[in-house]
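Bump. Still looking for Histidine phosphatase family protein structure tokens.
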Amino acid sequence: MELHLIRHGQTDWNEERRVQGQSDSQLTQLGINQAIALGERISAIKFDKVFCSSSLRTRQTAANLFPANHLDIEYLDSLREIFLGPWEGTLYEEIERREPESYHHFWQEPHLFSVQGAESFFKLQSRAIATIKKIMESNLNKKVALISHGALIKTFLCHIEDKPMCELWTPPHMHNCAHSIVSFSDSELGQITQYADVPYAELTR
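Sorry for the wait, here they are.
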């Protein structure tokens, strides 16, 4: 299976630096334009199936990526972003003032991040791995697009690279509409060929 991992376009909450998690925000005009531009760049790829987070921002991204709407798109709650419970809807600067240690853990030591009522990055990674494993089992030898969120995609790529969670936020940055590709065969875990628009070979020289 050739898996194309795509982050959603810019949202109003991205612009405001407001915590999204699993709460719904919507694409800005820039976010719409980002999705349209990526859709044009990948228009020659013949996808067999598209899986998409059920969040509004990812559904909007999918609609602008594939405007012809001839592809079979399946929307999954399990592809939603990390659940951040009491943080959701709050500005990041407010979180930094109110909970400086947890804020630091989130961005600098993600392996230590633990907030009551929120998902850990380890739980997010387990959810991502389990969901993609199911997708793989039913889509062998196919080209599949998966439209999801920055942290979910990052944790999955961390798993493929066999990196510890403490290195989750190491570059490249998972920018809006970043496009990554992982190829799977029966005999391997998975090989990253593109990471956030950059050929993987360039990152590992």
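The mean pLDDT is 95.

Edit: fixed formatting.
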